[in-house]
User: Fold this.
Amino acid sequence: MGFSKGGAVALYSAITRFQRMHGPAGARFALHIPFYAPCYYAFVDDEAVTDRPIRLFHGTADDLAPIGACRAYVEAAAESRRRRADHRVRRGPPPVRPPGRGPPRRSPGEQNASGCFWEERPAGELVSRGSGRPFGLDDPCVVRGGTFAADPAAYRDALQAVRALVGGRPSP
Assistant:
């Protein structure tokens, strides 16, 4: 399970090539649970994923990790004959971030790569589709500014869903 950039790790850790390259032999995750993962990467052989469930939790109002790219990822997974994984996107009204109070707020200094898409070349280099430059946060697609919001109801729903996935019981 991971959140934001950690959500990307939780999502892409399902790629079997990465498991073979970086994981201990014979070990597998039971689930992959990314929260508001930035789905703006395409990796070589990323259609070959684990058969373990992948559950993406995402907010529809998130402008740092927009849900559209994750929807496209899940649709591609469903259409690919080679994928046997159980992928689903669970979306909430605003971002499913920890509960808080008040309206959405803009953070002008926040690093925002939502306009980027990086793809892996056969030699292993990540390259920006837009600029053709190697991966870097100085790419022109990376801008400053992001919106944060909280939805306590969506947060509680996400907690309940994760507990159900991992077999936990809701707390009183």
Remarks:
- Residues 2-166 form one domain.
